[in-house]
Amino acid sequence: MGRRQARAGLVGTVALALTLSGCGLKSGSPMVDDVVPGSVGQGKPLDGASLTVTSKNFSENIVLGQMIGLIFKAAGAEVLDRTNLPGSISAREAIIKGGADAMYEYTGTGWITYLGHAKPIADPLAQWKAVRDEDRKNGVTWLTPSTLNNTYALAISRKNNAEYHLRTLSDVAALAKMDPSAVTICVENEFASRDDGLPGMEKAYGMSLPAANIKKMDAGIIYTQVSKSNSCLLGEVFTTDGRIKAMDLDVLVDDKHFFPNYNAAPVIHTKTFEKYPQIAGLLDPLSRKLTTEVAQVLNAKVDVDGQDPHEVAKDWLIKEGFIKKG
Known about the structure:
This protein is of the alpha/beta class. It has helices spanning 2-7, 14-22, 59-74, 89-97, 107-114, 124-135, 158-164, 169-178, 189-193, 198-205, 219-228, 243-246, 270-275, 279-289, 292-303, 309-319; strands spanning 29-30, 35-37, 50-54, 78-82, 102-106, 140-142, 152-157, 185-187, 214-216, 234-238, 249-251, 264-269, 323-325. The protein contains 16 helices and 13 strands. It starts with a helix and ends with a strand. Residues 7-25 have low confidence and may be disordered.
């Protein structure tokens, strides 16, 4: 997520974040990859720079952090890898305090979790602009966003959907009215109680599911239950999760745009960006290539196939021509 890091790991990480930022967050592993410019980094515009990349501690964000580091490395920088920090707050504080220079963040997380707004902005670009403008005062520079949107969704197995032909959440609402017993749903405990989760979704779509039809469980189990059993017709999923394709699920369209946008965009410590404005020219082309579908494929390589996030990032960047092997 977007939302995973927005809600998980916030409690208990503040003290750690302050400790890390207070000591400069200079521990980490140097990136030693022998990579050279491809379509980005020609002329090595970061030659002589020493930059630290960071990320949160879930697969997608680690892969994205690795991508930034590898591009910086190919562009001539010495890169310190400080990815896989616990929760959101640690990485956020590192960017604000300058203990890290760059990472991928999510617009919905910025707007709701960090900047404290209760109501998301429906238009993705408008949401990004609002976050970009308001976060300047915190010393954070947001670069061009991707269309990669790691938000909540409901999914159904293609096997079951051959019977129901559901395409949108409005279709689910219509089915719930016509046949209330048909709509069973597996969700996480928190999603079941959050205003931006199931209760808010039911209100937005005018549906009221009986309590007996709502089954609460851990996130990882939901995918299996929806795909392999008939205990739940629908399940809460995250739109960029690699298990969606691996388990043959159909994601239903949020046609009323209830769930917030969590578009991934690079965030840079502002003083770093002022010193190296060429970073935008390196990362903007990357963001333009990052889609929800690309994220699903890359996340599956890590979460389904067990590959290393660094190698997944490196292989994809080379395949897409952003960098080359040295």
